[in-house]
Design a protein that fits this description.
The protein is an alpha+beta fold. The chain has helices at about 1-25, 45-60, 90-95, 165-180, 195-200, 215-225, 250-265; strands spanning about 30-35, 40, 65, 70-75, 80-85, 100-105, 115-125, 130-135, 140, 145, 160, 185-190, 205-210, 230-235, 245-250. It folds into 2 domains: about 1-145, Fructose-1,6-Bisphosphatase, Chain A, domain 1 (2-Layer Sandwich), CATH 3.30.540; about 155-265, D-Maltodextrin-Binding Protein, domain 2 (3-Layer(aba) Sandwich), CATH 3.40.190. The strands form 3 sheets. The protein has an 8-stranded mixed β-sheet with strand order 4-3-5-6-7-8-9-10, sandwiched between helices. Strands 12-11-13-15-14 form a 5-stranded mixed β-sheet, sandwiched between helices. Bound molecules: D-MYO-inositol-1-phosphate (IPD). D-MYO-inositol-1-phosphate binds near residues 68, 84, 213 and 217. Its EC number is 3.1.3.25. This is Inositol-1-monophosphatase. Belongs to the inositol monophosphatase superfamily.
Length: about 260
């Protein structure tokens, strides 16, 4: 059953990724700003979400839907699809070949504190990479099984993060980065939360953390990172969610969380 759900997620994410890539080749413009002038949407985001929503309505008419561009609809099956049609929209706008279609199917309320991720697919069209996971069965890049990097001390850790769209929170995030940078191998800001989580899963970075994400940004990537052996958590005892998400090998996650607690103080 879950494998069928993953097949649906993967197939539709690939199709939406092809649509996004065609838009990118034809040229992309900002269609509108959302929460702030730096938070943007393009026509491709809207079309890709409409495509995904339409396909899911045909194939899974009783499931709920929660998408970045078109909002939520409750279903009767207890399952909900969390969809970011183009994660990394700013990269997409500028032609930086690092953006993704992210689709997760979860059980329960699509609230980070109560849902249980069942399966997820994250497709990076420019790289031709397809990351997938099924809860309890594993995570893959194409056919290759994923495993997080072995633990390292923080001075040997490549840490990835992202920034919110609001100016006030960005100022706080800048201060944390200033304190963190001298204590780790380096910091990356790659611009696509779902792929940031997949990077931890694929041992391309040692850790990822971010504040203020939305469910569609992290739902699929969180299943993938967790199935690759990462701890995926929120602040202190909280589940990963809007306030905070941290993903890393359990040993690295504990050390990084301690350091971040000091930097926030
Ligand atoms: C954004 C990206 C970015 C992260 C932002 C997200 P969007 O998603 O994932 O890396 O730092 O917090 O909102 O707006 O491109 O779908």
């Amino acid at each position: 059953m879950t494998r069928e759900l993953l097949d649906i997620a993967r197939t539709i994410a690939r199709e939406a990724g092809d649509l996004a890539a065609r838009h990118r080749a034809a040229g992309v413009e900002v269609a509108a700003s959302k929460s702030s002038i730096v938070d943007i949407v393009t026509e491709a985001d809207r079309e890709a979400e409409a495509l995904i929503r339409g396909r899911l309505a045909e194939l899974r008419p009783n499931d709920g839907f929660f998408g970045e561009e078109s909002g939520a609809e409750t279903g009767s099956s207890g399952l909900t699809w969390l969809v970011d049609p183009i994660d990394g929209t700013v990269n997409f706008l500028y032609g930086i070949p690092h953006y993704a279609v992210s689709i997760a199917v979860v059980e329960g309320d699509p609230d980070p504190l109560t849902w249980r991720g069942l399966a997820g697919a994250v497709v990076n069209p420019p790289a031709g990479e397809v990351f997938t996971a099924i809860a309890g069965e594993g995570a893959w890049l194409g056919d290759a099984r994923l495993r997080v990097a072995e633990p390292v001390e923080l001075p040997q850790a490549l840490v990835n993060t992202g920034f919110a769209y609001g100016a006030e929170l960005r100022a706080e995030q800048g201060a944390v980065v200033a304190g963190l940078l001298p204590k780790v191998r380096d910091i990356r800001r790659l611009g696509t939360a779902s792929l940031d989580l997949c990077a931890v899963a694929a041992a391309r970075t040692n850790a990822y953390f971010e504040r203020n994400l939305s469910p569609w940004d992290h739902a699929a990537g969180a299943i993938i990172a967790s199935e690759a052996g990462a701890t995926v958590k929120g602040w202190a005892d909280a589940a990963a969610g809007r306030d905070f998400i941290l993903a890393a090998h359990p040993v690295v996650a504990a050390a990084l969380e301690e350091l971040l607690a000091e930097l926030h103080a």
